[in-house]
Design goal:
By secondary structure, the chain is mostly helical. It has a domain of 46 residues. It contains 2 helices and no strands.
């Protein structure tokens, strides 16, 4: 059961806001892109957190010193 567009418009006017009408498909695409970006950020943060100690321990052990 869909909402009455006129009632929604009146509600928006009453609360001094604007409604954006979009297709459900465009909303799904945008939400998927946001979820993908969030997943990438989380993976990058984990990689960065786990990457630092390895690099520091290698430096302390002198591994890779010849490369510098």
């Amino acid at each position: 059961m869909g909402a009455d567009p006129e009632a929604l418009d009146l509600l928006a006017i009453r609360h001094d806001t604007v409604l954006e009408r979009r297709s459900a498909e465009s909303l799904r695409i945008e939400l998927q892109a946001l979820e993908d970006a969030t997943d990438k950020i989380k993976k990058d943060e984990v990689t960065e957190r786990h990457g630092r100690p390895d690099t520091e321990s290698e430096e302390r052990a002198g591994v890779g010193a010849a490369a510098h």
